[in-house]
Protein 1
Amino acid sequence: MSEGCGIVDPDAPEPSEKKRWYMNEKPQREGMYEPTPHEHCANILTHGIAILPSLIIMQVLMSASHRELQYYIMIIYGIATILLFAMSTAYHLAEYLYRPHQSTGFSRKLRYYLHLMDRSTIYFFIAASATPWLALRHCALLGKNLKWIVWVSAILGISYQFKFHERYKTLETVLYFIVSAIPYLGMITMSDRTGLPLMLLGGAVYAIGVVFFKLDGVVPFAHAIWHVHVLLGASIHTYAIYATLLGPDKYNPFPEVDFD
Ligand SMILES: [Zn+2]
């Protein structure tokens, strides 16, 4: 037989297990993608670099607040932003340190729970991002109620994560999309729509990022590209909040704003 004679057929396909630094094979069906070491590092760095700036920006937002309500909402928004980047960094770091073939019982559990926390924090962040707009602007009845609906949806989304984590991946993405879209319904009922184009631009950046979120193993560094879109989207939304929602409110004087 020819096996082992040392002659390689030039027409034979490349062996699938060939190691590439920029991308691994796409997983079968709903399987978990295994990033290359370079992709792991990019995943850690692209959100790790945002943790410290998020802390500083939270301070800036708090000191730019002119009313108690603005101040407390900025605390919630700031904490959600820091948690989003910190949980993502912690999860990707654990993924890098304890890759599947190196996982013991403890590290497998650690990776699982950090992933769960990473996904749950996204719902918390979505609700915290919508709250400044829905609570600090005068909205019609729909917008007024949406500030509670968005938090209830986030809690339901987090509960879903704990019950069905990673079981229906496409459904998970659709749920994120729906919860993220809820606040925009309220925003179109606002009497003052200053800053809304920036909100829509940030939303569009997130939406484009979701495309890369689904392209692991197809586009090199797809997950890190998704992270960069999150970073950009969050920066645009944070700037929009800072530029249009804080400080003295000429349209809605203090006594007219409540949190009910
Ligand atoms: Zn990630």
Note: The pocket of zinc ion is lined by residues 43, 88, 92, 223, 227 (CB under 6 Å).
Protein 2
Amino acid sequence: MSLINQSLPRFAVLQLSGCAGCEVSLLNANEWVEKYQLVYMPLVVSTHTVPEDTEILLVSGGVRNDEDVYNLRRAVKIVDRVIAVGTCAISGGVANLGDRDEVREMFMAQANRHHLPHLLPKSRPIDAFVDVDLYLPGCPPTPELFMGALTGPENFQASSIVCQECGRKKLKDMRPKHLLGFQQGEVLPDICLINQGYLCVGSSTRGGCRAICTRPGHPCVGCRGPSDAYIEKESSVWFDRVQQVFERLTDIPPQEIYDALHSPQLSLFLFQFADYMGNGGPARSKEKVL
Ligand code: SF4
Ligand code: SF4
């Protein structure tokens, strides 16, 4: 499927705070492919900002932080038409539900207690409450991983880490001095993203996704969780290992790598690694993780 045709109307998808489910729904459709040109969507089109000649802006996700406000205001100045897509853009969505006073009041009201669930102070993983037979990590898991979980782990073959599924070569003589950040600049094919200055954590992330992000050039952010070698270890062990890989392949100052690994950009997935050790729930054994 080609997303490039210069004569077609150009549209962008600005993702604010949300789960990317709307983007996946759009990508699963093919009705628009011959009629519109997708010029920006961080999930798949790595232009750094919405291009100046964009005509239509689809906005998904809610406004949860000041970067969302900035990106939204900047993008709407460029385009002719703005379309709010989905529940999160229109009303904040699930992430906003517990923040809304009227919703909390409704859930807490005596009259509703017979009919509505009580809100807990925090959301928790399910194994804080019940035993789990198999964990299927991924955000989202690929169709192949779903099939592996359904048909049984014994029928699913995967490499232990993402690097082994990636195919990019790690070079000893291409040593960046600083990190580039996410999705900035050109990405060379075939060469490890670490050699190119990108913060890729595929070296300690469990395989099975077939390196769906790194092969086209997006650094792995660790959504599949820790590989078997780290699953029953403190997250400091895992962090140290990633740091060592960067020190072996780059001349980036260790503090710069440390700060990047402990940054908000990676927090969604990297801080979940602690859950495997038992963080309010049981420790998760590697035999139970696909
Ligand atoms: S570090 Fe990332 S880019 Fe490099 S080989 Fe591993 S998964 Fe691929
Ligand atoms: S490459 Fe990394 S971030 Fe992408 S799906 Fe695989 S584990 Fe998740």
Note: Residues 235-249 form the longest helix (15 residues).
